[in-house]
Amino acid sequence: MTVPIQLRHDETFVLNLGPQHPATHGVLRVKLTMDGEYIVKAEPVLGYVHRMHEKMAEGGTFVQFMPNTARMDYLHALAYNHGYALVVEKAAGIEVPERAEYIRVITVELNRIASHLLWWAAFLLDLGGFTPLLYAFDDREKIIDLLERITGSRLTYSYMRFGGVCNDIDDEFITGTRDFIKRLRGRLPRLYHDLVTHNIILIKRIKDIGFITAEQCRRYGATGPVARGSGINYDIRKNEPYSVYPEFDFDVPVFEECDSMARYMVRLQEIEQSMRIIEQALDKLPDGPIMGKAPKMLKPEAGYYYSAVETARGSLGHRLVCDGGKNPYKLKLRSPTFSNLSLYGEVAEGMLLADALAFMGSLDLVIPEIDR
Amino acid sequence: MNGYWSDIFTGSKSLVTGLLITAREFFKPVVTEQYPYEVPTMTPLFRGHIELIGNAETGEPNCVVCGMCQRACPSQCISLDGKKAEGGKGKVLTRYILDFTKCSLCGLCVESCNFNALRFSKVYNLAGFDKNDFVMDMLKRLEEQNRCKQ
Amino acid sequence: METSIWRALLYLVGIMAFAGLNAAYLGWCERKGAARVQRRIGPCEAGWAGLAQPLCDGLKLLSKQLVVPNGVDGIIFRVAPVLAMIPAITSMVVIPFSANIEARAMELSVLLIFALASLSMIAVLLGGWASGNKYAIISSARAVSQNLAYEIPMLVTVITVVMISGSMNLREIALDQQGGFWHWNIFRLENGHFLTMWVSFIIFFICSVAETNRAPFDMAEAESELVAGFMTEYGSMGFGLFMMGEYLNIVVGACLTATLFFGGWDCPFGLTPGVWWFLIKIYILIFTFIWIRWTYPRTQIYRLLNLSWKILIPFSLANLLITAALIKVF
Amino acid sequence: MEIQEQTRIALAELFPAITTVDAPPVVEGGSQDEAPPRAPGVLVTDFAGCGSHLDVLCRPDQVVDVARIMDGQGFFLEAVSGVDWIDRHQLEVIYDYNRLGGDHCRVMVRTCLPRTEPVVPTISGVFPAADWHERETFDFYGIQFQGHPNPIRILLPEDADFHPLLKDFMP
Fold first, then answer.
1. How many A×B Cβ pairs under 8 Å?
2. Which of A105, B149, C136, C288 has the fewest CB atoms nearer than 10 Å to its CB?
3. B50-149: what CATH class?
């Protein structure tokens, strides 16, 4: 319900929603041409944390790029490891044993819950609620301790290798994960939904704000919770099944309202779906090796390869072009928030400053992933 | 008009439940870990910076200066060299420098070492005022460990 | 004794001490309260349980240099923070702490307090405008519209209390409610006043939260949108004075609520009235300010104005009419 | 999988002369260098092997028509990437189209441009998503996109004069 007003295009001033601003969660600058508190034109300016990952990929061998993948989207790093491992395994034709596939799914889903919890905390921080951040980080800390037990690092994992994973999971990890899921299921209705989701101030703050129609999503290539909040039933784990996802039954939360509240609800329900997947994966965890046989120095066949993975923010694509050598000839990283943010200019027009920031929070941006 | 009244009632009800939840949280025990007084223990697979493994009895590094870790490292932060051993068989390590400022803790060096000469240390609280503090000499560190083991 | 210099001097020192201590240690209470709600410890390093923390903050703020951005009206830039402090302290002159502890009992003390309350809005406006920063200008525009919108329902509810108590003098209002909690305005049983009193208490409380730019209504100093609102350009004691002004406004709001609705210095069981009951009531009310701040997200400027113009004002006017009718009928 | 057939037929109209004569020998993802340079056309590739259902090679000026057909079929533009074939003195632009919901079909459209003056018409008119992707490809490869509304760099600093992803770029 943004109030329809006539924007006076002549009396505007330019406000830099800085590269350094509390609500951009990273180094993103949005040049806002404002008329009073209404936004006439919003134009994101990128590149402040650009590190040229694609040139690094061409410089080193295939396995040497694995640590870089975690440095792009550090909130859902395991999905990036998974995406890169998938595309190279497809190129080199490496088999991954059953147990390794299950471990990959369990760790990726745990990391997805951690990413959604952090998004929820940061989103409420943008809206002015400080306390929920501490509750969400309390839960997220449990996940990070679990993942630290098996991967060795807490945020930027390089846990997956071509053909499997590098450490096996032990019983303490399994019992820890089950306890964590039981604890989070107990806290979700009270601390997350009663305190925040049903709160009238929050509902008024994000309901009917930031409309993205399905057609806009298609034309701008927005995927993930942003598309699912606009009624598009597109989840790569369901539409383009990879790894062992077809063996789990989980449903994809889709909302038709197309506003920030819909995107908010999609992510919270995805936390519950991820918990369902983890439980089924833990029940059906097979024994066996965790590392398939992969040649030490990979030389995949020349050709064009593409793999897409569902991260917490959308579809992460790896376009790999090989010329038969031991280095990737070209690796294009299709980052989900790069396209999700490209529709910001069109949607934020005529919005209030406070709504524009609530809308940017609902897009769940991670700036190093946009800039690569 | 009914939107007006329902807003007021459901709204105030949700505000009150919010207050009760934070009140209940107010009286619960503290969750945070008081860092300088309570020190966290690292999990067995934790990846601190890499360090050399010494032979159990003699304390000599197992490293045979094959240079596999140097080639495996994506950011070239390991530099090592050795000299021929007196007895003429294999090499002895003389210098092993790790430039920890560029290391991304990916574990490729530890995996590429076939002689069980490298492992991850459990050091987590590294802080320094100067970049050169992080260019570490692993041999010296191994000798200190052996000395304090006696 | 009434007009001797010593009495004036004693009260001057007393009020300044009360204001200074409150401003400093409310910051400490806020950080400890927020920490407890978020299940962490809060300041505990400086002094025993962090009690010296306000002292350290004060010293740090005092030692910093007040940076005045160039091309800005220096005089207004320096006056604005002081202007934020003045109304809060001067309105403590007329607050009846207890039967015999009151600086100056004036006939129209309620009028004086609300005149000064609107003065603090001007300080926010000047502070925002004088710092020449785009974020500050947006924030001061928001602050003016917010304070304006919430002054009207606040005054209307105070009129209902004054009608019931019969006098504009805070001391008379407090005296009228002496003798046990059933005499307090909020539980005044005679001719059904307690119904309307509850409604006016809730409206008054919401307005005092909004008046001091606190928590769900902190549109002026919205950290995550406007960086630090009108305080963006202020360095050391400029920022310090604005914070003290805000905390003192909270204290004055709490004192007013206690005097108007909870019977000033009266003991709930009518036995030992005194200033300590007054202080207990104030600090309970201040704790609810802190409690509210750490529970709710921030509203958006349109919802905030809607809440006032479409809900609070109609309700307070209806409440006024009902009270008038009840007085007339019984 | 009828969506693939549908798109294949729709795309085949663009290359009437070549495909009706005889479908080019189905090159199983073999390296492009030995096989004779493929004539423009639509090639069905297996998804498990290389991740895309259809592999379309078209001339630079047909890029906008392909984009319009894809828009008609309800595809969305996933990525625009450039490849620098320095030994063949060619710059290649790869457009990846995918379906948003419904049954899955990914199409890879490739065009080759001479390395000396790489110019290709922009498709940001049809797909606004291409606006940023094309700016990035220009940023890294120096490929000029004619008719682009705002052809400035997006990730590198505005005053950078180099194109880092070219193979002959030495920092």
1. 68
2. B149
3. alpha beta
